[in-house]
Amino acid sequence: MSVKRNKPEAPTADNRWKMVDVTMRRNGYSGHALIETLHTVQEVFGYIDDPSMRYVAEALNLPLSKVYGVATFYHLFTLKPKGKHTCVICTGTACYIKGAGELVEGVQQRYHVRPGQTTPDGQLSVVSARCLGACGLAPAAVLDGQVLANQTADGLLGKIEKVLQHES
Q1: pLDDT tens for each residue of 11-68
Q2: What pLDDT score was predicted for residue 1?
Q3: What stretches of 34-74 show up as alpha helix (H) in DSSP?
Q4: At what angle do helices 34-45 and 50-59 cross, to 10 degrees?
Q5: Are 162 and 144 in contact (CB under 8 A)?
Q6: What span, in angstroms and rounded, lies between the C-alpha atoms of 28 and 24?
Q7: Whether pLDDT at 86 is above 70
Q8: pTM, 2 dp
Q9: Is residue 127 within a helix (H) or strand (E), and if so which, with residue range?
Q10: Are 128 and 91 in contact (CB under 8 A)?
Q11: What are 101-150's pLDDT values in tens digits?
Q12: Are 158 and 87 in contact (CB under 8 A)?
């Protein structure tokens, strides 16, 4: 016998919550739908914030600590809005040996952001990855989904600048 629960009210009146509700309803509001539900939240809103986690926890009848634990454990989930553009710098062994540290330092000096941060204007998010699986292209970076091989700090900064200027 299942216990009838009242569905919690969505954090905002935004219609995108309907898509999240569909995901939870399709899975019978089961706790096993947590990862799929978090994916839906991130897909429709771009990130998972505190009110979103509270809503999902209440709707799936899970402790907030479990929802937060899953959202912070998996690197695919982000708890902050991403920038309009994303630069992923590989810091795996092969890339690091061939100069990934200089790439990170160059971006940090030019844009005043560390990996995991977004510029104050919301234009650029910088992320580090343990391995892109492109060791033969070291040091490698990915700018808006495009893999960039054999990068130098100046070369990467030039490509980022070009992408950002294209927006203006």
Answers
A1: 888 899 999 999 999 999 999 999 999 999 999 988 999 999 999 999 999 999 999 9
A2: 44
A3: 34-45, 50-59, 64-73
A4: 140
A5: no
A6: 6
A7: yes
A8: 0.65
A9: strand 124-129
A10: yes
A11: 999 999 999 999 999 889 999 999 998 888 888 899 999 999 998 999 99
A12: no
4 or 151, higher pLDDT: 151
- Strands 124-129 and 85-90, by their bridges, are parallel
- Coil vs helix vs strand at 51: helix
| Tokens read off for 160 | 């980022």
Nearest-angstrom CA–CA distance, 21 and 47: 17
Q: Which two tokens stand for residue 105?
A: 């330092």
Look at residue 145 in the predicted model and tell me its pLDDT.
87
Q: In 11-33, which positions are buried (b, 16+ CB within 10 angstroms) versus exposed (e)?
A: beeeeebeebbebbeeeebeeeb
Which pLDDT score, from 0 to 100, does residue 168 have? 57
Residue 31: both structure tokens together = 């706790």
Q: Which residues face 118 on adjacent strands? A: 125
How many angstroms separate the CA atoms of 156 and 141, rounded? Answer: 8
In this structure, which amino acid lies at residue 124?
A: L
Give Cβ neighbours of residue 44 (< 8 Å, ≥ 6 apart): 16, 19, 20
* DSSP per residue, 100-117: HHHHHHHHHHHH---TTE
Report the alpha-carbon angle 67-91-87, nearest 5. 70
Judge if the upstream peptide bond of residue 51 is cis by omega within 30 degrees of 0. no
